[in-house]
């Protein structure tokens, strides 16, 4: 039984990915997040919940993360780590001044992802064959947005991290890639839309419709749709799976954004 680690697994895209991966044979999911209650709620709804495990840890705390991955609960000594979905992140705006959120956003989104990958590396090295690392960046890594300099910087920085680690790690069989979602129907997105609605004097539904009208697809992506793409990248990682692995796909960013950015 092989393990795939998911951070930010308590809600949104992370929870949807956990649910989808749990339906595959030979895969054990290790859910990581800050709130154990949320993680256990996700785990209990997964296929064969007893097979999977949850760890409550803040990815921005490197020492705590390293310690957590070495625990019996993590189980990475018994169940080889073959995939990492570094998905934890926070959103929202920031503004220079006493209450600037710059440090918090960079610490969680950028440094937290770096910590996750580095803490996972020894366990990936112990596993045979091709391993996959996937990082959640954002369509906002492709263009700037007023009032969100910290978030945009953090998500753009992740693409640089992916490219650098792809060069370093791929010769050892660890492929490193990113996914860049656009609007996804999550709590984070709904909070952002509500803030935009408040600023414009609109209702939530009016603002949501306004944003979706801009998209070529005319609607947001669902977490379940994002999970399909993550599942695709992790093809072949289950014990006994025979599908060809993406053994030369590395250093790339998958743009799944309802057509809001086309490169």
Structure, explained:
It is a single chain. By secondary structure, the protein is of the alpha/beta class. The chain has a single domain, classed as NAD(P)-binding Rossmann-like Domain (Rossmann fold), CATH 3.40.50.720. 41% of the residues lie in helices and 16% in strands. The protein is built from eight helices and seven strands. The chain has helices at 12-21, 36-45, 62-69, 102-125, 149-169, 187-200, 204-214, 223-233, and strands at residues 2-7, 27-33, 53-56, 81-86, 131-136, 174-181, 253-256. It has a seven-stranded parallel β-sheet with strand order 3-2-1-4-5-6-7, with helices on both faces. Helix 1 links the parallel strand 1 and strand 2 (27-33). The longest helix is centred in the middle third of the chain and has 24 residues, at 102-125. It is globular, with a radius of gyration of 18 Å.
Low-confidence stretches: none
Mean pLDDT over the residues: 94
The CATH class name reads Alpha Beta
Helix content: 40-55%
The third-level CATH topology is Rossmann fold
- Topology as a string of helices (H) and strands (E): EHEHEHEHEHEHHHE
Output the CATH homologous superfamily.
NAD(P)-binding Rossmann-like Domain
Shape: globular
Largest sheet: 7 strands, parallel
- Computed over alpha carbons, the radius of gyration is 18 Å
By DSSP (H or I, 4+ residues per run), the number of helices equals 8
CATH architecture: 3-Layer(aba) Sandwich
């Amino acid at each position: 039984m092989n393990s795939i680690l998911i951070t930010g697994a308590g809600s949104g895209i992370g929870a949807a990915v956990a649910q989808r991966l749990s339906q595959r044979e030979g895969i054990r999911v290790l859910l990581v997040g800050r709130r154990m209650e949320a993680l256990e709620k996700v785990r209990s709804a997964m296929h064969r919940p007893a097979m999977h495990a949850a760890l409550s840890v803040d990815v921005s705390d490197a020492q705590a993360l390293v310690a957590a991955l070495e625990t019996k609960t993590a189980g990475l000594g018994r169940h080889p780590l073959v995939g990492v979905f570094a998905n934890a992140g926070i959103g929202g705006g920031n503004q220079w001044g006493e209450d600037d959120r710059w440090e918090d956003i960079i610490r969680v989104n950028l440094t937290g992802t770096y910590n996750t990958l580095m803490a996972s590396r020894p366990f990936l090295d112990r596993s045979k064959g091709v391993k996959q690392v996937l990082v959640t960046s954002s369509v906002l890594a492709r263009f700037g947005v007023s009032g969100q300099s910290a978030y945009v910087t953090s998500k753009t920085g992740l693409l640089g991290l992916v490219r650098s680690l792809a060069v370093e790690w791929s010769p050892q069989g660890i492929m490193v890639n990113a996914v860049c979602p656009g609007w996804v129907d999550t709590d984070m997105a709904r909070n952002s839309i509500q803030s935009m609605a408040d600023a414009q004097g609109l209702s939530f539904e009016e603002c949501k419709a306004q944003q979706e009208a801009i998209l070529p697809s005319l609607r947001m992506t669902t977490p379940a749709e994002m999970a399909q793409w993550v599942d695709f990248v992790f093809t072949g990682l289950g014990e006994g799976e025979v599908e060809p692995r993406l053994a030369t796909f590395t250093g790339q960013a998958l743009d799944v954004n309802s057509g809001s950015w086309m490169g």
